[in-house]
Specification:
The chain has helices at residues 14-20, 50-62, 64-82, 84-95; strands spanning 2-3, 25-27, 44-46. By secondary structure, it is mostly helical. A three-stranded parallel sheet has the order 1-2-3, with helices on both faces. Helix 1 (14-20) packs across helix 3 (64-82) and helix 3 (64-82) packs across helix 4 (84-95). The longest helix has 19 residues, at 64-82. It is globular. The mean pLDDT is 93.
């Protein structure tokens, strides 16, 4: 799935939905910093131009193993950082430090 930034470079709710659904996400660089960054080539595939977007998609379509790894890592990221229970846990851990 291709993800692009929202209004004022916001990170729309579509991105967490894609991570939760274990999608291989091809995205523009995010406009904001996350507590745990999404790593290019690990949880997402980042593109900086239309041509690079097409290249990243073709690469994933031609490499089933890389696509599967991206999907699993995206879902793991969701479980650790984006799932509502994880957000509350991470907030409490940060507050108690």
């Amino acid at each position: 799935m291709v993800f692009t930034r929202g209004l004022a470079d916001s990170i729309g709710w579509r991105l967490p939905e894609l991570l939760a659904a274990s999608r291989a996400v091809v995205t523009e660089p995010l406009g904001y910093e996350l507590p745990e960054p999404l790593v290019d080539g690990e949880q997402v595939a980042v593109f900086r131009s239309a041509e690079q977007c097409v290249e990243r998609i073709e690469s994933l379509l031609n490499d089933e193993s890389a696509c599967r790894g991206l999907r699993q890592a995206a879902h793991d990221y969701y479980q650790r950082n984006t799932k509502p229970e994880s957000i509350i846990r991470n907030t409490l851990i940060t507050a108690l430090k």
